[in-house]
């Protein structure tokens, strides 16, 4: 089991770094865009902000699945990237079909990736929640001023 954790550590660290960078970019760009738009009562502004946050965090999660797929190929578990990516996605989102199973030696990487995926989707969800709460807070404050 220790060799599974050691093999997974670089992928987990890379995923954490990627998620941290994307979260920081999302929050900074969100705040900058929010300040720069003159007429913020327009519906399209809120929709654009929320869609952008959703897409960036989703793309980040897809990239993390690809990182895990690359690890699986590097370890010799899969011969093609498409199969490795499919298996990674099933693990990452904790779906766990079980139609493709890794060798006994590396089987624990599935639950390790699932734990990593739960954490990363949780972070993505919290960023999205923060954006939605900001939209609500902004419009509530505007209504209070009227």
Automatic annotation (TrEMBL):
<keyword id="KW-0813">Transport</keyword>
<feature type="transmembrane region" description="Helical">
    <location>
        <begin position="47"/>
        <end position="75"/>
    </location>
</feature>
<keyword id="KW-0812">Transmembrane</keyword>
<keyword id="KW-0472">Membrane</keyword>
<feature type="transmembrane region" description="Helical">
    <location>
        <begin position="6"/>
        <end position="27"/>
    </location>
</feature>
<keyword id="KW-0406">Ion transport</keyword>
<protein>
    <submittedName>
        <fullName>Two pore domain potassium channel family protein</fullName>
    </submittedName>
</protein>
<feature type="domain" description="Potassium channel">
    <location>
        <begin position="66"/>
        <end position="132"/>
    </location>
</feature>
<dbReference type="Pfam" id="PF07885">
    <property type="entry name" value="Ion_trans_2"/>
</dbReference>
<dbReference type="GO" id="GO:0034220">
    <property type="term" value="P:monoatomic ion transmembrane transport"/>
</dbReference>
<keyword id="KW-0407">Ion channel</keyword>
<dbReference type="InterPro" id="IPR013099">
    <property type="entry name" value="K_chnl_dom"/>
</dbReference>
<feature type="transmembrane region" description="Helical">
    <location>
        <begin position="81"/>
        <end position="102"/>
    </location>
</feature>
<feature type="transmembrane region" description="Helical">
    <location>
        <begin position="114"/>
        <end position="133"/>
    </location>
</feature>
<keyword id="KW-1133">Transmembrane helix</keyword>
């Amino acid at each position: 089991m220790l060799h599974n954790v050691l093999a997974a550590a670089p992928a987990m660290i890379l995923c954490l770094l990627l998620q941290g960078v994307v979260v920081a970019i999302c929050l900074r760009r969100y705040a900058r865009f929010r300040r720069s738009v003159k007429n913020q009562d327009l519906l399209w502004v809120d929709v654009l902000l929320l869609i952008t946050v959703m897409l960036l965090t989703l793309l980040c999660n897809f990239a993390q699945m690809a990182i895990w797929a690359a690890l699986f190929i590097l370890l010799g578990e899969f011969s093609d990237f498409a199969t490795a990516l499919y298996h990674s996605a099933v693990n990452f989102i904790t779906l766990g079909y079980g139609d493709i199973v890794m060798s006994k030696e590396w089987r624990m990487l599935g639950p390790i990736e699932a734990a990593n995926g739960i954490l990363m989707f949780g972070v993505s969800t919290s960023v999205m929640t923060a954006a939605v709460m900001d939209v609500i807070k902004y419009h509530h404050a505007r209504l209070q001023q009227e």
